[in-house]
UniProtKB/TrEMBL annotation:
SUPFAM superfamilies: Thioesterase/thiol ester dehydrase-isomerase. Keywords: Hydrolase. InterPro entries: HotDog_dom_sf, PAAI_dom, Thioestr_dom. It comes from the Bacteria. GO terms for cellular component: cytosol. Pfam families: 4HBT. NCBIfam families: unchar_dom_1. This is PaaI family thioesterase. PANTHER family: 1,4-DIHYDROXY-2-NAPHTHOYL-COA THIOESTERASE 1, BLR7284 PROTEIN. GO terms for molecular function: 1,4-dihydroxy-2-naphthoyl-CoA thioesterase activity. Residues 52-126 form the Thioesterase domain.
């Protein structure tokens, strides 16, 4: 373990998302300032076989997941927070044979909604592949405790 409870909570969250396991996503870093997830390059996520460019759906999944898990960086306790709205602006395609990183932060937390923003990048965060903004609905701790109980039962 890292000794960082936010990082550990983010790892636990990511570990129960089967589609993220299949994509090989991992938590790169997590703290109160935000979250970075890594999507490893793989031939299974190529969208254009002629160029080797990653499919936009894999980038969308990375960014939705990064924004969603970034909620654990700001909330005192785990809550289920499903996506209400997500907008991604693609700047340019990801370079083939390189991992993609997604950064997200929560910039406003209300009793009902969490607002997030972030970007996807490869080598240099100042050269983003895409920008993202998302809103997530707070379901509360009672829903989360039901989910946590199901995790422990598996």
């Amino acid at each position: 373990m890292t000794g960082n409870p936010i990082f550990e909570r983010a790892q636990r969250f990511l570990s129960v998302l089967r589609h993220c396991q299949v994509l090989g996503m991992t938590v790169h870093s997590a703290d109160t300032k935000g979250l970075i997830l890594r999507l490893p390059y793989s031939t299974q996520i190529i969208g254009n076989p002629e160029t080797g460019v990653i499919h936009g759906g894999a980038i969308t999944t990375l960014m939705d997941t990064t924004c969603g898990i970034s909620t654990v960086c700001v909330l005192p306790d785990f809550e289920v927070c499903p996506t209400l709205d997500l907008r991604i602006d693609y700047m340019h395609p990801a370079e083939p044979n390189k991992d993609v990183y997604g950064f997200a932060e929560c910039y406003r937390v209300t009793p009902n909604i969490i607002f997030t923003r972030g970007y996807a990048y490869q080598d240099d965060p100042s050269q983003p592949i895409a920008h993202v903004v998302g809103t997530f609905m707070r379901m509360g701790k009672t829903v989360a405790s039901g989910v946590a109980g199901k995790e422990g039962a598996q």
